[in-house]
């Protein structure tokens, strides 16, 4: 899944909203990136080998896809949350550059890409480097509200149109050891 231009999703304006903005951004990812998420899941379903998916920082789009795959594979929600929070490790390496980056933005002219040189707006960009489990939990709660059944039953099956049997085959391809009957596969999330 190639990196997406986040601008169509209203990425910039959401950052200043804190947790609510993260939830909106993640819901937008589920909507705007349906095609990419579907392609990843179809590649897993085909089971022809490894599947590579990525985004710019490895947390937002990648985190959602990884969460879906982990849930399909049978991981519990706590493990999925921990996996998402571990993305902070990769972000820590660039946090030192944020001070330089924010300072540089103050020198840039007003543009649609950088709609404000206000410190509040720039601090919102810097908040991208923070990974709070409450944001992830709020996102999952919103997914449950929007797509009854959570990420797998609600989003993958109802919104993307994958069947229970296809989910079973994805789980088998991800784990290689599915022993349960297709009708017995439980899906968390």
UniProtKB/TrEMBL annotation:
One Pfam family it belongs to: Y_phosphatase3
Cited InterPro entries: Prot-tyrosine_phosphatase-like, Tyr/Ser_Pase_IphP-type
Highest taxon of source: Eukaryota
GO molecular function list: phosphoprotein phosphatase activity
Coiled-coil ranges per UniProt: none
Name the UniProt record assigns to this protein: Tyrosine specific protein phosphatases domain-containing protein
